[in-house]
Amino acid sequence: MFVRGLKRKCFDGEEDIEGTLAGIKAIPSYNLQRQSLLDMSLVKLQLCHMLVEPNLCRSVLIANTVRQIQEEMTQDGTWQMINTPSTGQASLDRLVSTDILCRSSRDQAEGKHVPAYGTFNKDFESDQPPDSSETMSTASSVQTPRNLQSNVWEMENPQENKGNFQKSLDQIFETLENKSPNSVEDLFSEVDNSYYDLDTMLTGMMSNTKMGHCDSLETFSSPTNTASNSNCKSDLNDLDHIVEILVES
Amino acid sequence: ADIISTVEFNYTGDLLATGDKGGRVVIFQREQEAKSRPLSRGEYNVYSTFQSHEPEFDYLKSLEIEEKINKIRWLPQQNAAHFLLSTNDKTIKLWKISERDKRAEGYNLKDEDGRLREPFRVTELRVPTLKPMDLMVEASPRRTFANAHTYHINSISVNSDYATYLSADDLRINLWHLEVTNRSFNIVDIKPANMEELTEVITAAEFHPHHCNTFVYSSSKGTIRLCDMRSSALCDQHSKFFEEPEDPSSRSFFSEIISSISDVKFSHSGRYMMTRDYLSVKVWDLNMENRPVETYQVHEYLRSKLCSLYENDCIFDKFECCWNGSDSTIMTGSYNNFFRTFEREAHRDITLEASRESSKPRAILKPRKVCTTGKRKKDEIAVDSLDFNKKILHTAWHPTENIIAVAATNNLYLFQEKVN
């Protein structure tokens, strides 16, 4: 069992030799403990396979702990040794947003599947993950609204990597069957958009997908571009938001 | 019986409401004193049981919305009926609990069993009369306040104007009028523009007992903000900010987690407020923001076990706290079904246990002690023997008398001061 994190000993000249020796001995075990704590925290944050929304307070506290450890490890210089540089910053981003964590590695840059759509399909009765074709046809109808919303979305995430995701998203929509834009406009004219402010759009970020989404997402392979995690999430939320409007109308 | 998730006395203390994980509310009523049965004074019996919330499924997010009752708050009684607010993660409901002890008999158009009478059988006109019947307690939902919270509601608090109330979730606080269900005003919003920058959430909120414009909310970083609704419509700027400076010598990776405030309660006087964090209870003077005036260690022996408690998630347990009627004593729960009371002036504290084994009806509770040193005395319990599954998160104190309600998982215990 671990005890609470040891306070780092400070190696300045004022320490007596005994203290310094003790400090040197303490460091490996302190690093080990710290690493274990980091691993434990990451595991806790990864618990996304739940039907109920995870406790936001708990997630934020764990994420803060992870950040604290990472900051200390970065100062130590041990961060680079233990963790690959490419994933370091990105994984922090991934963890800090208490987002759907099971989404993170599977569903972003490709953007080939928008998880939320399946459940919005009105003909779709069961809770099972939708088959791709159904999802795609639903997705096609929101091509126009996506463009309408894209300004807002861009405001939210002025990050350079979003372009990549945006492109893949565009490609997907192009390949889909286009419904007549007029019908979509009609849908929109009836909906009071004022309710759907940024908050609702970003709401999707906080939600946790259920297993079904993760399962269906697995059919779309490809490793993640971890740097674009955050952008991808917002894109998906953007789409969530659009589908919310569709359902509401 | 389901796990009890909230306990609350009403303003007179005659009624005690409990909410559970299954969405049910059970209300107990205090028996009237009867000279023939002096020992029955203070006994609470079931008065009403009803299903307040049902499980829901949020189709947009593909998530279940738990029916667990997070909080119950009574409204002051204004007529024969009783009203309370109960909330789960997303929806607040106003319930009316009323008694019916009479029924009308002698209708013209229908029989006693409700069947319509044949018209030709109605030969005379009579006035229905009221006859006594067995007491029936009915609970009916009068208002449903829904769709105003994106995140999980952790607190509700009735304002001293008895017309409005607030509901708080992890990132926002809304103000409602009890009569209006289709509109609520957002008065606090700490959601960052970019959710990835989120580092702090709201953990509890409460209205001041006397000043209807003042409320406080606590955060996961151990801070309390007092807001005045007169200053602006959106109270993102606090009027007062309460935070105790961190003790650098006790800093660890768990410092922030254990500083997270799980409950905040104003004293009845309105002069003080009490906050509960993982290891301690602090009393704050509203006039002094830089540190609490009193700090009580609830279970300091857990400080060396924080890593284990982090591993098993116990470190995230949200304990509540409460004042007694005169604000002289405060109470809060701990593990192993222990709960603690602290007498502020007398500087006395006691640890008691709520369990079937150690408390028979009418028996006096024996003080408990947790052994912190190596040598365990008789009757002491070692820290490693504590059962961390038996946690007392919810307690309530009668508004005027020394009667306390303690929820131990799925059992409710009521204790009262022994009167000779």
From TrEMBL, chain A:
Q: List every stretch annotated Disordered.
A: 117-148
**SERTA domain location, by residue?**
30-77
Record Pfam families: SERTA
Source domain of life: Eukaryota
Q: Name one GO cellular component term.
A: nucleus
Comp. bias (Polar residues): 129-148
What PANTHER family does the entry give?
CELL DIVISION CYCLE ASSOCIATED PROTEIN 4/SERTA DOMAIN-CONTAINING PROTEIN 2, CELL DIVISION CYCLE-ASSOCIATED PROTEIN 4
- The protein's name is CDCA4 protein
Gene that this polypeptide is encoded by: Cdca4
UniProtKB/TrEMBL annotation, chain B:
Task: Supply the PROSITE patterns for this chain.
Answer: PR55_1 (PS01024), PR55_2 (PS01025)
Q: Which GO terms describe its cellular component?
A: protein phosphatase type 2A complex
One molecular function GO term is: protein phosphatase regulator activity
For this protein, the record's InterPro entries field holds: PP2A_PR55, PP2A_PR55_CS, WD40/YVTN_repeat-like_dom_sf, WD40_repeat_dom_sf, WD40_rpt
- Entry keyword annotation includes Heme: no
The answer to whether keyword Repeat applies is yes
Keyword annotations: Repeat, WD repeat
* Similarity comment: family membership: Belongs to the phosphatase 2A regulatory subunit B family.
User: What is the designated name of this protein?
Assistant: Serine/threonine-protein phosphatase 2A 55 kDa regulatory subunit B
Provenance organism: Hippolais icterina
